[in-house]
């Protein structure tokens, strides 16, 4: 079985607002992709994400987008020398009290110590993304500004 994980968090904004903050490259660049995002997340698109902590733009394949419900992405495994891709599934659910539950599941790393280490690293990264998303959409603050560079 390959390595995988799920992280989740609740954001005090409606689903449509939270979802848009992820699919819109300008907004995503305001709190997550410290080097910028190019391209809106739409089914069949390939976009690029750039991070100051991992320089160089990453191609991100957008496998599926279901408006206000789900985003499925594939990108190169962050394992050194890896030639395979992992799959990221983000889901968005109304909690019934004006908040949105966001879950991010990533799977597909190799069953090696290097694959395990890469999975843990991405788990940390997606947890940080959820924290940054929450603070950005709730309070307009960019937690990652100056954090990596």
What this model shows, in words?
The chain is an alpha+beta fold and 149 residues long. The chain has helices at 15-23, 25-29, 113-139, and strands spanning 3-11, 36-38, 46-51, 54-66, 70-76, 85-94, 100-109. The longest helix has 27 residues, at 113-139. 30% of the residues are buried. The mean pLDDT is 93.
Q: Work out the helicity level.
A: 25-40%
Q: What's the total helix number?
A: 3
Largest sheet: 7 strands, antiparallel
Please report the distance between the alpha carbons of the first and last residues. 36 Å
Compressed to H and E, one letter per element, the order equals EHHEEEEEEH
Summarize this structure briefly:
This protein is an alpha+beta fold.
Describe the structure using short key phrases.
149 residues; alpha+beta; seven-stranded antiparallel β-sheet
SSE order and pairing:
Blueprint: E1 3-11, H1 15-23, H2 25-29, E2 36-38, E3 46-51, E4 54-66, E5 70-76, E6 85-94, E7 100-109, H3 113-139
Antiparallel strand pairs: 1-7, 2-3, 3-4, 4-5, 5-6, 6-7
């Amino acid at each position: 079985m390959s390595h995988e994980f799920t992280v989740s968090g609740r954001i005090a904004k409606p689903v449509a607002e939270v979802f848009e903050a992820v699919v819109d490259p300008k907004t995503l660049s305001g709190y997550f992709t410290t080097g910028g995002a190019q391209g809106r997340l739409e089914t069949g698109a390939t976009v690029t994400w750039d991070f100051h902590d991992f320089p160089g733009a990453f191609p991100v394949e957008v496998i599926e987008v279901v408006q206000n419900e789900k985003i499925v992405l594939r990108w190169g495994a962050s394992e050194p020398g890896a030639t395979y891709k992992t799959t990221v599934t983000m889901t968005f659910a109304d909690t019934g009290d004006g908040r949105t539950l966001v879950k991010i599941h990533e799977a597909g790393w190799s069953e090696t110590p290097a694959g395990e280490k890469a999975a843990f690293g991405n788990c940390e990264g997606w947890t940080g993304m959820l924290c940054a998303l929450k603070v950005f959409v709730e309070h307009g603050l960019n937690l990652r500004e100056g954090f990596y560079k």
